[in-house]
């Protein structure tokens, strides 16, 4: 969430969920979207996903040399840097939600894949019923504590 342009103040909703391709990836059948794409929620192919608390437990277990807390710091830094470069800074005030896709990898170097200016929050509300309460409390009431949000400045 872009809370302020000058000075730059960005907030990140700390709850997330991961989506996985429905079939194991390999370089065969390049036209099979179920092997290569994670956004299969708009058809009847099913949706493989994981909540953040489950992911963090598995991540820390699999990569003890790269704890999630360290990876999260790098992701938040990348998000703040990307917002400092956005054209949107020319506006006086803006409060929007920008969901970001961040791939993983052995080097644990986050990469920003996409920034959406008109996000679909339906799934966020389904997975985390307090999503809008958390986000709107931060955006419009300046209530930062207890809302699963971290402010980046």
UniProtKB/TrEMBL annotation:
Record-level Gene Ontology MF annotations: ligase activity
GO-annotated cellular components: cytoplasm
Keywords, in A-Z order: Ligase
Gene3D superfamilies: ATP-grasp fold, B domain
PANTHER family: TUBULIN--TYROSINE LIGASE-LIKE PROTEIN 12
UniProt protein name: Tubulin--tyrosine ligase-like protein 12
């Amino acid at each position: 969430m872009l809370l302020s342009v000058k000075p730059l103040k960005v907030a990140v909703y700390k709850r997330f969920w991961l989506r996985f391709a429905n079939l194991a990836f390999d370089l065969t059948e390049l036209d099979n979207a179920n092997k290569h794409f994670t956004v299969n929620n708009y058809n009847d192919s099913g949706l493989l996903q994981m909540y953040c608390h489950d992911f963090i437990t598995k991540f820390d277990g699999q990569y003890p040399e790269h704890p999630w807390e360290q990876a999260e710091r790098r992701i938040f830094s990348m998000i703040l840097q990307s917002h400092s470069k956005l054209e949107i800074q020319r506006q006086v005030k803006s409060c929007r939600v920008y969901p970001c896709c961040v791939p993983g990898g052995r080097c644990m170097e986050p990469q920003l894949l996409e920034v959406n200016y008109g996000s679909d929050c339906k799934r966020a509300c389904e997975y985390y019923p307090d999503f809008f309460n958390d986000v709107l409390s931060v955006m419009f009431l300046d209530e930062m504590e207890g809302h699963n949000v971290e402010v980046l400045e």
